Fold:
Amino acid sequence: MKRFWKRAGVSFVVPAVAVGVLAGCGEAPEEPDTDDDQASGEAEEEPDDTEDDDDDTEEEFDEDWEPEQDVEYIAPADAGGGWDTLIRQTADVIESEDLAPVNFAPQNIPGSGGAVGWAEVAGHDGEPQPLFAASPPIILVPLTETSEYDHTDFTPVANLITDYSVVLVEPDSEFESINDVFEAIEDDPGSVSIAGGSAAGSMDHISIAGAADEYGLDAADVNYIPFSGGGEAMTQLLGGHVDVVSTGVGEAMGQMESGELRPIAYSADEPMEEMEELGAETYIEQDVDYTFDIWRGIMGPPNMPESAVAYYEDMYAEMLETEAWEDVQDNQGWLNNYQDSEEFGEFLDDQYDLFENVLTEVGIQEEE
Amino acid sequence: MNAWESLMYGFSVALQPEALMFVFIGVVAGTVIGMLPGLGPISALALMIPVTYGMDPTVGLILMAGVYYGAVFGGSTSSILLNAPGIAGTVATSFDGYPLAKQGKAGKALALAAYASFIGGTVSIIGLMLVAPLLSNVAVAFGPSEYFALMVFGLTAVVSLSDKSLVKGLIAAVFGVMVSLVGMDLQTGTARFTFGNVNLLDGIDFLVVALGIFALGEVFVLLMKKAGSMQQNSLGSLKLSKQEVRDIGPPIGRSSILGFFTGVLPGAGATIGSFLGYSMEKRIAKDGDTFGKGNVKGVAAPEAANNAASGGSFVPLLTLGVPGSGTTAVLLGALLVMGITPGPLMLEDRPDVFWGVIASMYIGNIVLLILNLPLIPFIAKILNLPRALLLPLIIVFCMIGVYGISFNTFDLFLVLFFGLIGFLMRRYGFPAAPLILAMILGAIMEENMRQALQISGGDWTVFTDSNISLVLLILAVLSLIGPLVPRMLRMIKRS
Structure:
C-alpha cells in the first residue's frame, strides 16, 4: 500500500512532475511490436509468476526469459549526475537499437548519497526489476554506515564502463609528478592541501589516500578537504586556495584540455592516449603500483531470478557493441569495461576489501 | 569577431523560429513551475533534462535558460501572494511583497517584481557579455576563508532584519544555524544531530523550513482569526505612481549590480544577493522602519538582485566550466549530456552555443515581461478565493512542493513541525527572517570556516591574511557597531 502511494504520488501530484513523466514516455514511446515478440517467442511459462510471487525465488532457469513489463530504471540521485547520465544514455541506446521488447523508463530517486534509492530497490526482493546504476559509492556509503543496505544486498547485473581518478595541479605548480606530492607530504605531513569533490571517505578521498598508502605514507597524513562537487574543488585550485585536486578524469577533461589545470597522475592500469597527449602519466608509470577504477555498472534487486540476470547481462554486452553506444562513449569519454554478473560480483567484493582497508587507514572506518 | 558582431551572430541563432519557440515555451513552463511553492529553478531544470535530450545543444540550452528565468520570476509570485517562497532567492521578496498583497496592493507588488526582475536580468546580461572573462578571476578569488568572511558579513543583516527586539532576532538566528547543521557533515562524513534517523541524513532542506515557517505559520495565524475579521483582498492597481518609480529606481540599480556580483561567486548566488540587497536598502532608506510592512523598495531590491544573480551565476559556468549554484550544476549536467563541455574553450569551440544563449537571455527577459504583465490580474485572482478554499489550497501546495523535492513523507511531518514553530514565533513576536537567513548562511559559513582551517592547518590568521576576507570582516564589524556609535556618543556626552 505504502508503495502504491509513492508511485501514485509521482505521477499525479504535480503537473510539473507529470511533464517529466510525459517527457520520459515521449523519449521511449510505447512500441506495438511487443506483441509480435511475444507471438514469435515461447509461451511455455507464465512469466507473471516472477512478478507477483515474492517467495518463489527458486524458479527454474528459463533461458528464453524476456521482460514483460516496462523496466523501472533508477538513478539513485538527482538528474544531471553520473548515475543519471548512465541511466539515460543506456536507456536511449537500448531503445534506439531495439535491444529489449519493453521500455526502460529512467527515474530519479535522490537522497542520502543513494541510500534512499537503494532502499526502494531492496523492497523488490526476488523480482526481475527495478535496475539501477551503481558505482563505488554503493560500497563506500555503506562502509561509513549511512545506508541500511550494501552491495551484497543487490544482484550485480553487469559492469559497463569505467572512468579513472586524476590528480591535478596548477600549470605553474612546483609539483611535477605524483612522487613530488607524496615526498612533500612525507617531509611535512598534512602540509599539502588536497581538494576533492566528494565527502571525506568518499571516492575522491579514497582514490588519493589509497595511492598514498601504496607509496608508503600514512593515509591519514593526506590533508583532504572535501568540497561539494569536482567543479567546486577545481575552482579552489584555479584560485590558488588549495595545492592539489583529486577528481574524475571525465569531470576534469575541460580544464585539462584548455591548459587551466595540469594532470600529474591518473589511476588507469594502461596509459590512455588522450592523457598521454596532455603529458600525464599513470601512477604505475611513476612507480606507484596503484590503480583505481571509477566503474559504473547496473545492479538489480536482491535475489533477482537467474534467468533475468542472464537476459540483462547479454543485453548489455550486446549494447556495448552497437554504434550508437560508440557515439555515446565518444561524447562522454567513457571506456568500456564489461564484466558479466559473476565477474562483477567478485570485483565488487575485491573493491569492498580495498576500500575498507583504506578507510580504516584514514581513520573513518573504525577497526572492529 | 568582436563582441558586437558576436552578439549579432548570437541573435541570428536565437531569433530562428525554432529557438524563439523554445524560449517562449521555456519561459512559460518555467513561470508555471516556479509559481508552485516548492518548485524552483532546480526542479524545473531537472524536469527539462529529459525533454532537451536529443535536441540540438543550442536550442536545448536556450530552452533551459528560458526555464531558469521563468522559474526565478515565477517564484516571486507565490512569495508575494501566498507568503510561500518557492526558492531561497525569493524569500526576501515575501518580507514586503506579502504585506503589500495583504493591503490589497497585490497587483502593484507583482508588477513591481516584474519590472525589477526585468531590469535586474538585463543588467546582468550586459554584465555577462561585457565582463564575463574578467570576472572569472573574481569567481576564483573566493576561497574558503573569503566565503567565511562573506557569510559573516551576510549574517550581520540579522540586525536589520530583527524588527523590534534584537534579542529575539538573535534567538531566531541561532535556531536557524542549529537547524542548518543537521545532517551529514561533509568534512568528516559523520551524521550530526540526526538522532539516528535516516531521513535527516541529508539535512533539512531549506524549503521545508521556509514553507513551514512562512506559509504554514501564516495559515495557522489566519485560522486563529475570526472569519469575519479578514478583509477581502483585492488586486489593486498595477500602476506605479511617479513618486514610487522615483523611489525604486536607485534601489533597483544598486541591487542589480550587487546581485550580479554575488551571482558570479560560486555558491553565493541569488539568495545572498537578495538578502544583502534588501538589508542594504533597509539601512540606507529614510523610511527604513516601514520595511517589512509593505514598502515598495523592499520588493524591488530583492527581485532585481535575484534576477541579476541568475545571470551572474552563468559567468563561472560559461567561462570556467564550473557551476556557480545548484541550478547551474544541473545545467552543467544537462550540457554534458548534450556532449558539450563548458569552459574556456567553449567560446572558441562552440560560439553558437555561447552567444546564442546570451542572446536568448535578452529575448527571454523581454518575453517574460510581456508575458507576465497581462497575466498578473489572472494570477492574482487566487487571492479572491474564499478563505475556506484558499487556506487548504496553500497547505496542499506546500505539501506538494515539499514532497516534490524529496519524495519522502517524513518531510511532510517536518514542514508541519516548522509550521507550528512559525506560528509560535509569530504569536510571541519572534521575527522569521533572521531564522531563514541564518539557516541559509550558517551551514555555508561553518563549512567554509572548517575548510579554511583545514587548509591552513588550524592557523586562524588565514582569515585575516587575505585582503578580501579582511575587508569583509571589517565591514561586518562596522555594520554591527555602526548603529551603536551615535548612542555611545550620546552617553559619553551625558556623563
Notes: The mean pLDDT of chain B is 81. The two ends of chain B are 70 Å apart (CA to CA). Residues 80 and 482 of chain B are 32 Å apart (CA to CA). The longest helix of chain B spans residues 106-141.
